[in-house]
């Protein structure tokens, strides 16, 4: 969320997280912001205000994505509860809103939260924001509709004390859904190959944390991702075990575990396990398990390997000058938990209009 707003011209003041490696990544990419390692449940918002010398209402925008595992579709329905302690940080985020009173609030969460428990949690959040004087609403947004090469549905709560809110218009759709009425105003979804096709080919177990581009960009998306980058970072292909390699090698782009020969098919597997992406598809949601080919559709569409961190970052819409710290597994976790920067960047013009209506 911070990277998307920074690219739109917002000054990022501080990032707060309990994950030290994620904070190290934040600090590297937001060199003028404070990176605070803290448990949000014990950080007092009044003390935070005082520490920064802010008065109530000074902050332009508070953004966050509080942990939400209690609502995730990856959790069995019978184990989802309204008072799940894993959802407690959402209330803590609202406490910061209550005390700090930022002009704007953006809170991202899993799409399942909107309708969970017959919408009770959604209504609770909105009622709290409206009681604090915010014009507030929530919308489930598919990142692909905003130019991200990935179908990733996220709930975004948006609140403003400066006037009425709006949500970004969907500007991308599938070729089949395009309407002549809109002409060129609606673009076709960005595909996997539109996003990563210019990156160097690799064999599994090869690559380096710092390398060079070997081919020119050939799509607008690639050119945008490379615009501020002098070098290529995080382009390393994870080494595969022999059976993992044999499984991916036996599949064509677009295929998955169900298409494996009997002798290679796992006895039990996730839907999409050992899936290979195809060039012309929009990627499915990337998860924090993207380092493991048996956990989803993370296979490269041409090379016999899984995606590199850089390729996954492209699919999440992180520009190439954003560098990930930590091991491959730690970077995978950061990527899987991240909000696509382009999704949040799409809110920037609306946010500027709310903050500076006369400009």
| Unreliable spans | none
How do the SSEs run, as a string of H and E?
A: HEHEHEHEHHEEEEHEHEHHHHH
Question: Radius of gyration from the CA trace?
Answer: 21 Å
Q: Please name the fourth-level CATH homologous superfamily of the largest domain.
A: Vaccinia Virus protein VP39
Notes on the protein architecture:
This protein is α/β, with parallel strands linked by helices. The chain has 2 domains: 2-173 and 340-355, Vaccinia Virus protein VP39 (Rossmann fold), CATH 3.40.50; 192-337, DNA Methylase, subunit A, domain 2 (DNA Methylase, Chain A, domain 2), CATH 3.90.120.10. 29% of the residues lie in helices and 14% in strands. It has 13 helices and 10 strands. The protein has helices spanning 2-7, 20-29, 45-52, 88-100, 112-115, 120-131, 192-196, 220-226, 242-249, 309-316, 328-337, 341-345, 348-355; strands spanning 14-17, 34-37, 61-64, 104-110, 135-142, 153-160, 172-173, 187-188, 207-211, 232-236. It has a 4-stranded mixed beta sheet, with helices on both faces. A two-stranded parallel ribbon has the order 1-2. The protein has a two-stranded parallel sheet with strand order 7-8. Helix 2 (20-29) links the parallel strand 1 and strand 2. Helix 10 runs parallel beside helix 11. It is globular, with a radius of gyration of 21 Å. 38% of the residues are buried. The model has no long low-confidence stretch (mean pLDDT 92).
Q: Which short descriptors sum up this protein?
A:
359 residues; alpha/beta; Rossmann fold; DNA Methylase, Chain A, domain 2; 2 domains; four-stranded mixed β-sheet; 13 helices; globular
């Amino acid at each position: 969320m911070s990277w998307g707003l920074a690219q739109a011209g917002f000054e990022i003041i501080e990032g707060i997280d309990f994950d030290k490696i994620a904070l190290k990544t934040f600090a590297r990419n937001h060199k003028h912001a404070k990176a605070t390692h803290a448990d949000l449940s014990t950080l007092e918002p009044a003390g935070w205000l005082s520490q920064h010398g802010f008065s109530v209402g000074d902050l332009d925008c508070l953004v966050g994505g509080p942990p939400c595992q209690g609502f995730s579709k990856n959790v069995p329905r019978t184990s989802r509860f309204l008072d799940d302690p894993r959802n407690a940080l959402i209330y803590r985020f609202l406490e910061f809103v209550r005390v700090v009173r930022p002009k704007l609030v953006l809170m991202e969460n899993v799409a399942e939260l909107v309708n969970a428990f017959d919408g009770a949690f959604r209504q609770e959040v909105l009622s709290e924001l409206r009681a604090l004087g915010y014009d507030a609403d929530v919308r489930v947004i598919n990142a692909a509709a905003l130019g991200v090469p990935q179908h990733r549905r996220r709930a975004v709560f948006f609140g403003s004390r400066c006037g009425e809110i709006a949500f970004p218009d969907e500007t991308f759709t599938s070729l089949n859904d395009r309407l002549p009425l809109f002409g060129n105003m609606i673009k076709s979804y960005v595909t996997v190959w539109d996003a990563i096709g210019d990156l160097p080919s690799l064999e599994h177990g090869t690559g380096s944390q710092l390398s060079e581009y070997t081919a020119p960009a050939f799509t607008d998306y690639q050119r945008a991702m490379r615009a501020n980058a002098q070098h290529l970072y995080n382009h390393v292909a994870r080494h595969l075990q022999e059976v993992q390699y044999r499984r991916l090698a036996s599949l064509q782009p677009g295929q998955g575990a169900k298409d494996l020969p009997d002798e290679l098919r796992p006895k039990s597997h996730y839907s999409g396990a050992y899936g290979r992406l195809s060039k012309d598809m929009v990627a499915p949601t990337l998860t924090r398990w993207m380092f493991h080919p048996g956990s989803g559709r993370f296979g490269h569409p041409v090379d016999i390997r899984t995606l590199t961190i850089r390729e996954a970052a492209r699919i999440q819409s992180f520009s190439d000058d954003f560098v990930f710290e930590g091991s491959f597994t730690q970077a995978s976790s950061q990527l899987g938990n991240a909000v696509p920067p382009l999704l949040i960047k799409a809110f920037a013009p609306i946010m500027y209009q709310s903050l500076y209506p006369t400009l």
